[in-house]
Design a protein that fits this description.
Strand order of the largest sheet: 1-2-3
Bound molecules: heme C
Number of domains: 2
Number of strands: 3
Order of helices and strands: HEEEHHHH
Structural class: mainly alpha
Largest sheet: 3 strands, antiparallel
CATH superfamily of the largest domain: Cytochrome c-like domain
Shape: elongated
Number of helices: 5
CATH architecture of the largest domain: Orthogonal Bundle
Radius of gyration: 34 Å
Distance between the termini: 75 Å
Helix content: 55-70%
């Protein structure tokens, strides 16, 4: 008995190895079969997806053209599509400043000419903004004029001295 034990143990180990080999084999066969099935029938799905894509794209283009036409308008001095003030320098600003982000990001910000210059330098150093060349002073004039800190885009700073402070009482049960 004690002599047979090692043998049967060995057999068991061998069986385990064989079993896991079979499992691997099954997995491989399953994969191959799946790939084959996809190869044979897959194009049906692809075909449907593409059809949907095309259908979606065409409606979208249709809509967005209509919207763009509508948006390439100026109302109350604001170019609707970019949200930027429309004046003589607008085209330059649009060409140089709305390629990477929305014009609304610009319209939301206020700064002095110096502040705008710093933002431009920051984008040139870290974000890949190109040299603006002869357009730079024009763009800076535009920004400093329309997006200066004094404008009413932001609420006034809180006058800390004028605020009446009170202690918020926490209720304790
Ligand atoms: C090459 C790409 C690129 C171009 C062109 C570009 N910017 Fe930017 N700008 C960025 C990136 C990137 C950010 C960071 C956006 C973010 O934080 O989501 C940014 C941020 C800003 C901000 C927000 C800064 C802040 O503190 O939150 C302003 C304002 C701005 N840009 C103005 C401009 C102006 C004005 C121009 C034209 C002179 C311009 N950008 C052109 C890439 C560009």
């Amino acid at each position: 008995m004690s002599k047979n034990n090692p043998n049967s143990l060995q057999n068991k180990t061998w069986l385990k190895v064989f079993d896991s080999f079979l499992t691997t084999l099954k997995a491989i066969v399953f994969l191959i079969f799946g790939t084959l099935l996809y190869g044979i029938f897959g194009h049906h799905f692809d075909f449907n997806f593409k059809k949907n894509d095309v259908a979606q794209k065409s409606t979208r283009t249709y809509n967005s053209t209509a919207i763009e036409e509508d948006w390439d308008k100026v109302e109350n001095g604001i170019h609707l599509q970019t949200g930027l003030v429309h004046d003589a320098s607008f085209d330059i600003v649009r060409a140089n400043c709305t390629a990477c982000h929305s014009g609304k990001l610009i319209a939301q910000n206020r700064a002095t000419r110096e502040g705008w210059l710093q933002m431009i330098r920051w984008m040139q150093e870290t974000q890949g903004l190109w040299e603006l060349g002869v357009n730079e002073p024009k763009i800076l004039d535009y920004l400093a004029e329309h997006y200066a800190p004094e404008e009413t885009g932001r609420r006034a700073n809180i006058d800390m001295a004028a605020v009446e402070w009170y202690i918020l009482e926490m209720e304790e049960d």
